[in-house]
Design brief:
This protein has nine helices and seven strands, in the order ααβαββββββαααααα. It is α+β, with helices and mostly antiparallel strands and about 270 residues long. The protein has two domains: about 120 residues, no CATH class; about 100 residues, Tetratricopeptide repeat domain (Serine Threonine Protein Phosphatase 5, Tetratricopeptide repeat, Alpha Horseshoe), CATH 1.25.40.10. The strands form two sheets. It has a four-stranded antiparallel β-sheet. The protein has a three-stranded antiparallel β-sheet with strand order 2-3-4, covered by helices on one side. Strand 3 and strand 4 form a beta hairpin. It is elongated and about 75 Å long.
């Protein structure tokens, strides 16, 4: 029955008879994320989702062992000796979810892993079990979003530096554009409702319109610290100080940066 289900008719069956006698028939499922199925996933949400989904990777179950920055994912797992793995988004912009199920003499053997590409032999992250892993699919989606954000990062930083210079040199500071005001008001409401992920994303949208807006960077930095994205929070507060080096709270902000630096995983410092 298995042979009839797994093989095409004719000489192909004869070619693979020996293989199937030992390994049985099976199936392989592939998934690669697209812009369409990740359009509602922001970088802030993607970072949290990646950390959560990667915790199911065999022995990496402590979220403190997984650090995500704007350029890479760093995994440090203690298993007898410390094992470190680092993956640059620029080198792996779109990893692949692979689920394999083989039915043979020993019964069904199934596994799910995420690979750098569909042809890679080694798994970057691995899950056992008899069904496709939802966590693996989430990891691929989150990775895709973060990789796209990483690709845009240099241009965004260059744009910020130009905007910051113009802002500091301006005798009269520009008013916040109305379309940025909308996101500001929505972000403040999200903070009141303790929807901190949404608030961070809304401030980010406002800053996409007005990258020279100091309170936006300051508030976004505090929110990112609240959700324990200390790396992102530090960058946001540093931008605030770049724009307002003589701010009344400049010293307190710098001390907050020092505090958060002590909370970063060692590899990220």
């Amino acid at each position: 029955m298995i042979l009839k289900q797994c093989l095409n008719q004719g000489h192909v069956a004869l070619l693979f008879f020996v293989v199937l006698a030992t390994t049985g028939c099976g199936s392989t499922t592939y998934y690669r994320a697209t812009s369409e199925d990740t359009r509602d996933l922001s970088p802030t949400q993607a970072r949290k989702l990646l950390i959560k989904s990667a915790q199911t990777d065999g022995w990496c179950r402590d979220p403190r062992t997984i650090n995500v920055t704007h350029e890479k994912v760093e995994v440090t797992c203690a298993q007898g000796t410390v094992n470190k793995r680092s993956f640059l988004f620029s080198e792996i912009p779109a990893p692949v979810f692979v689920f394999k199920s083989v039915l043979g003499g020993l019964g069904e053997v199934s596994s799910t892993c995420v690979k750098a590409s569909g042809d890679d032999e080694n798994c970057m992250f691995f899950w056992g079990g008899g069904r496709p892993s939802a966590e693996a699919r989430d990891l691929v989606k989150a990775w895709y979003v973060l990789a796209r954000a990483a690709a845009a990062y240099p241009a965004q930083e260059a744009a910020f530096e130009r905007a910051a210079q113009s802002y500091r040199e301006a005798k009269v500071k520009p008013p916040l554009p109305e379309n940025a005001v909308k996101f500001k008001v929505q972000a403040e409401l999200a903070v009141q409702q303790k929807r901190f992920d949404d608030a961070a994303d809304l401030y980010d949208q406002a800053l996409g319109i007005a990258p020279w807006w100091p309170p936006g960077h300051y508030n976004r930095g505090l929110i990112l610290g609240e959700i324990e994205d200390y790396q992102g929070g530090i960058r946001a507060l540093q931008k605030y100080l770049t724009l307002e080096p003589d701010a009344a709270n400049a010293r307190a902000v710098q001390l907050k940066i020092y505090q958060w630096e002590s909370l970063l995983p060692q590899a990220a410092k």
